[in-house]
Design goal:
By secondary structure, this protein is mainly beta. The protein is built from 1 helix and 11 strands; from the N terminus they run βββαββββββββ.
Length: about 110
Amino acid sequence: QVQLVESGGGSVQPGESLRLSCAASGSIVSSNTMAWYRQAPGKQRELVALITSRGMTNYADSVKGRFTISRDNAKNAVYLQMNSVKVEDTAVYYCNTQTWRSWWGQGTQVTVSS
Protein backbone atom coordinates (compact mmCIF):
# COMPACT_ATOMS: atom_id res chain seq x y z
CA GLN A 1 0.00 0.00 0.00
CA VAL A 2 1.38 3.38 -1.04
CA GLN A 3 -0.01 6.61 0.34
CA LEU A 4 0.64 9.97 -1.26
CA VAL A 5 -0.52 13.20 0.35
CA GLU A 6 -0.20 16.50 -1.49
CA SER A 7 -0.17 19.92 0.10
CA GLY A 8 0.79 23.49 -0.67
CA GLY A 9 -1.85 24.45 -3.18
CA GLY A 10 -3.67 27.74 -3.06
CA SER A 11 -4.59 30.89 -4.91
CA VAL A 12 -1.86 33.07 -6.35
CA GLN A 13 -1.51 35.83 -8.90
CA PRO A 14 0.29 35.48 -12.23
CA GLY A 15 4.03 35.73 -11.83
CA GLU A 16 4.06 34.53 -8.25
CA SER A 17 5.52 31.32 -6.85
CA LEU A 18 4.13 28.29 -5.11
CA ARG A 19 5.68 25.13 -3.71
CA LEU A 20 3.78 21.87 -3.68
CA SER A 21 4.74 18.99 -1.44
CA CYS A 22 3.97 15.29 -1.65
CA ALA A 23 4.48 13.15 1.43
CA ALA A 24 4.87 9.47 0.60
CA SER A 25 4.64 6.39 2.77
CA GLY A 26 7.62 4.15 3.24
CA SER A 27 10.84 4.66 1.31
CA ILE A 28 9.28 4.73 -2.12
CA VAL A 29 10.60 8.18 -2.96
CA SER A 30 14.21 6.97 -3.02
CA SER A 31 13.52 3.88 -5.11
CA ASN A 32 10.82 4.95 -7.55
CA THR A 33 10.18 7.49 -10.21
CA MET A 34 7.95 10.16 -8.73
CA ALA A 35 5.80 12.46 -10.81
CA TRP A 36 3.49 15.43 -10.68
CA TYR A 37 0.42 15.52 -12.91
CA ARG A 38 -2.27 18.15 -13.23
CA GLN A 39 -5.82 18.26 -14.45
CA ALA A 40 -7.57 21.45 -15.43
CA PRO A 41 -11.37 21.65 -15.68
CA GLY A 42 -12.59 19.94 -18.83
CA LYS A 43 -9.15 18.69 -19.75
CA GLN A 44 -7.31 15.40 -19.48
CA ARG A 45 -4.78 14.80 -16.75
CA GLU A 46 -1.30 15.62 -18.02
CA LEU A 47 2.24 14.97 -16.85
CA VAL A 48 3.93 18.06 -15.46
CA ALA A 49 7.26 16.74 -14.23
CA LEU A 50 8.97 13.58 -13.06
CA ILE A 51 12.12 12.63 -11.22
CA THR A 52 13.71 9.21 -11.39
CA SER A 53 15.39 7.35 -8.56
CA ARG A 54 18.72 8.45 -10.07
CA GLY A 55 17.66 12.09 -10.04
CA MET A 56 16.98 12.53 -13.73
CA THR A 57 14.15 14.95 -14.39
CA ASN A 58 11.76 15.60 -17.21
CA TYR A 59 9.26 18.40 -17.71
CA ALA A 60 6.31 19.25 -19.87
CA ASP A 61 7.25 21.89 -22.43
CA SER A 62 4.69 24.25 -20.93
CA VAL A 63 6.51 24.41 -17.58
CA LYS A 64 10.16 24.09 -18.59
CA GLY A 65 12.25 26.84 -17.05
CA ARG A 66 9.51 27.73 -14.56
CA PHE A 67 8.88 24.59 -12.52
CA THR A 68 11.40 22.44 -10.67
CA ILE A 69 10.81 18.96 -9.28
CA SER A 70 12.95 17.71 -6.42
CA ARG A 71 12.86 15.09 -3.72
CA ASP A 72 14.08 14.55 -0.18
CA ASN A 73 14.73 10.86 0.39
CA ALA A 74 15.18 11.31 4.12
CA LYS A 75 11.73 12.89 4.40
CA ASN A 76 10.11 10.63 1.79
CA ALA A 77 8.88 13.74 0.07
CA VAL A 78 8.71 15.17 -3.42
CA TYR A 79 8.32 18.83 -4.23
CA LEU A 80 7.24 20.96 -7.13
CA GLN A 81 8.55 24.50 -7.08
CA MET A 82 6.36 26.61 -9.32
CA ASN A 83 7.75 29.99 -10.35
CA SER A 84 6.34 32.62 -12.68
CA VAL A 85 2.97 30.91 -12.62
CA LYS A 86 0.46 31.61 -15.35
CA VAL A 87 -3.32 31.52 -15.46
CA GLU A 88 -3.06 28.36 -17.54
CA ASP A 89 -1.31 26.61 -14.65
CA THR A 90 -4.64 26.53 -12.83
CA ALA A 91 -5.46 22.89 -12.11
CA VAL A 92 -5.61 20.19 -9.51
CA TYR A 93 -2.09 18.85 -9.05
CA TYR A 94 -1.54 15.18 -8.24
CA CYS A 95 1.45 13.25 -7.01
CA ASN A 96 2.00 9.87 -8.65
CA THR A 97 4.22 6.84 -8.56
CA GLN A 98 3.98 3.33 -9.94
CA THR A 99 4.79 -0.03 -8.46
CA TRP A 100 2.66 -2.97 -9.49
CA ARG A 101 -0.06 -0.35 -10.03
CA SER A 102 -0.32 3.39 -10.30
CA TRP A 103 -0.77 5.33 -7.06
CA TRP A 104 -2.30 8.79 -6.76
CA GLY A 105 -2.75 11.33 -4.04
CA GLN A 106 -5.98 13.20 -3.46
CA GLY A 107 -4.71 16.27 -5.28
CA THR A 108 -4.19 19.89 -4.32
CA GLN A 109 -5.87 22.82 -6.07
CA VAL A 110 -3.76 25.56 -7.62
CA THR A 111 -5.59 28.63 -8.84
CA VAL A 112 -3.79 31.40 -10.69
CA SER A 113 -5.80 34.54 -11.31
CA SER A 114 -5.43 38.27 -11.20
